[in-house]
Design goal:
alpha/beta; Rossmann fold; seven-stranded mixed β-sheet; five-stranded mixed β-sheet; globular; binds glutamic acid; Glu/Leu/Phe/Val/Trp_DH_C
């Protein structure tokens, strides 16, 4: 679970500021701009879960659809104590832009339950998931809104959601969630997809920045599904992984760490700290280590105006959603640090989620090679498109990616018209 620290800003305000910065660069009609600044619909559910000791505890969950303009909505479900409506709103809006940027036929959504999954037994986690899935089943559907894993959730939780939804329908509905186990309609390559996408854009960023990828020094914050896979895939490309961290702290070795050994150590001990041959660092120190690539792959609000001036990376690749605040964006840009934004850098996950959904709907499955080749093509194409637009408009990559994505949604909205 890659939860690191409390974010210092309201994520919804940050998402809105990023959106308006992009909108300032577009000839958007006033009504369209206002429309896109609102989440389309928001569901809050308070529900009971029977705990192992026989007590009943109340939990609060959410599912927000930001935009339904480009297609059914898509986005993960997060289990974390920090989950609240503003965080889910912000992440739902980011999913709209991410899907639009990657040309996926989806709007954006997000869900979450305020809980600490590490403190729940497997049985409690299953009860919580099945009850939450039932509560939000009024707004999820294979052709309406398709959840996926995010911070604190995984393929087992997706399996319980798929099963719960299917029990209510009386037949199996694999396409209602993505990120499922392969045995029930999941896709080859989905587990590694977000980390693989991070590796691909990091490689492309090295190319345009004129630094050799092999031998580059990499720092990864967060060692969950995104950070750990990005670390070992970059290591496989010859990068030197000098530091990694999880919620309880980090490890550093300027000569390089073996990320697969760190992963095994974490699976055995529950944390990366204590890996032989590495010194320990705090999560704050880790962000400021000398390196070529900094990959924040935990949660939002990590690079802020408080530490941006001390970041030593040449390139920041946002594996997490929203790890950098708008103030920090400006400081990094002024210092000549290239930043590959979340909606591009971590879009490999939702892209292979789209492949999974298409395979489920067709009941026809692709090979892992085919998945990885298609992912590579789509990531490189999106990266080049964003870089080209950034040069044309003389803006940073985040603003360029948002301009591109917001324009796609706005164009679709214009042509569909305002109902009634
Ligand atoms: N939670 C991931 C994200 O933030 C994946 C979403 C999905 O696959 O639908 O992009």
């Amino acid at each position: 679970m890659a939860v690191v620290a409390q974010p210092k800003e309201n994520p919804w305000e940050v998402a809105l500021r990023q959106f308006h910065r992009a909108a300032d660069n577009l000839p958007l009609k006033r009504g369209i701009r206002e429309f896109l600044a609102y989440p389309h619909r928001e569901l809050t559910v308070n529900f009971p879960v029977q705990m192992d000791d026989g007590s009943v505890r109340m939990f609060t969950g959410y599912r927000v659809h930001h935009s339904t303009v480009l297609g059914p909505t898509k986005g993960g479900i997060r289990y974390s104590l920090r989950v609240d409506l503003d965080e889910v709103r912000a992440l739902a809006m980011l999913m709209s832009w991410k899907c639009a940027l990657m040309h996926l036929p989806y709007g954006g959504a997000k869900g979450g339950v305020a809980c600490d999954p590490g403190q729940l037994s497997r049985g409690e986690l299953e009860h919580l998931t099945r009850r939450y899935a039932t509560e939000i089943s009024i707004i999820i559907a294979p052709d309406g809104d398709i959840p996926a894993p995010d911070v604190g959730t995984n393929d087992q939780i997706m399996a319980w959601i798929m099963d719960t939804y299917s029990m209510h329908r009386g037949h199996s509905v694999p396409a209602v969630v993505t990120g499922k186990p392969i045995s029930i309609g999941g896709s080859a390559g989905r587990r590694e997809a977000t980390g693989r996408g991070v590796m691909i854009v990091a490689r492309e960023a090295a190319r345009i920045h004129g630094i050799p990828f092999a031998g580059s020094r990499v720092v990864v914050q967060g060692f969950g599904n995104v950070g750990s896979v990005a670390a070992y895939l970059m290591h496989d490309q010859g990068c030197r992984i000098v530091a990694v961290s999880d919620v309880s702290g980090g490890i550093y070795n300027p000569a390089g760490l073996d990320p697969r050994a760190a992963l095994r150590h974490m699976q055995q001990t529950g944390r990366v700290a204590g890996l032989p041959g590495a010194e320990s660092v705090s999560n704050d120190e880790l962000l400021e280590l000398p390196c070529d690539f900094l990959v924040p792959a935990a949660i939002e609000g990590q690079i802020t105006q408080a530490n941006a001036a001390r970041i030593q990376a040449k390139i920041v690749v946002e594996g997490a959603n929203g790890p950098t605040t708008p103030e920090a964006d400006e400081i990094l840009a002024d210092r000549g640090i290239l930043l590959v934004p979340d909606i591009l850098a971590n879009a490999g996950g939702v892209t292979v989620s789209y492949f999974e959904w298409v395979q489920d709907l067709q009941a026809l499955f692709w090979s892992e090679d085919e998945i990885n080749e298609r992912l590579e093509r789509i990531m490189v194409h999106a990266f080049n498109g964003v870089v080209e637009l950034a040069r044309e408009r003389e803006v940073e990559l985040r603003t360029a990616a948002l301009i591109y994505a917001v324009k796609r949604v706005a164009d679709a909205l214009l042509i569909r018209g305002i109902y009634p």
